[in-house]
Amino acid sequence: xxxxxxxxxxxxxLRPLTEDKPKGMVEVDxxxxxxxxxxxxxxxxxxxxxxxxxxxxxxxxxxxxxxYEGVPITYTHQREQNGxxxxxxxxxxxxxxxxxxxxxxxxxxxxxxxxxxxxxxxxADAAFLVExxxxxxxxxxxxxxxxxxxxxxxxxxxxxxxxSNLVMTGFYTFTPAIFHACHLVQPSNRGEYEISEAxxxxxxxxxxxxxxxxDGWRIDVGYPEDRxxxxxxxxxxxxxPVEQ
Length: 244
What we know:
It contains seven helices and 14 strands. By secondary structure, the chain is of the alpha/beta class. The chain has a single domain (2-225), classed as Spore Coat Polysaccharide Biosynthesis Protein SpsA, Chain A. The strands form four sheets. The protein has an eight-stranded mixed beta sheet. Strands 2-3 form a two-stranded antiparallel ribbon. The chain has a two-stranded antiparallel ribbon with strand order 8-14. Strand 5 (67-68) and strand 6 form a beta hairpin.
């Protein structure tokens, strides 16, 4: 399975950490966020990394080159920051089967393998981790609305008035059906092509979608304090005793 990593963002909210590097290259626990992403994807079985670059792309390309830990890397270029669905379409010609997707500014210590397994078992067109966040933070994310059976009926990106506090995290698996949905996405109120809108189109068309509850933790590194929290959590994980 190929793995797509979205790493084109500038990270303006992470200033001054991103003055000379893209946000995926901000170090957490002595390694760039992208290194943590790559390690996890390879552990999940990725046999190729397709990395979408943009802002200061040469920093990423010079650092990793054309392979990481023996796994080849292909780079695509998002020339304008027009949203995640727009970024994903830059990899369409390189991906022709099911694939993993991770946002290159997220740090996980969680059940990512459950997403891969469930998507394969259910032959779902999309599977992703969800978690409940504080209501005041929900508007930062793609928010899931559910029916009385707990099934996701709608996904909306960064709503002013969130319908729930259940949000998508930054790890997904997809079939190529997601590319068709991305082509149909219209610009949001923010002027961006949102991946949440593409997923919502899959839902409304009756496609099989799996949402798996987060077991562990995830930090979306959007601000310097997020980076500090992720580093503390990783260091705590390193100090946990090994079970005998």
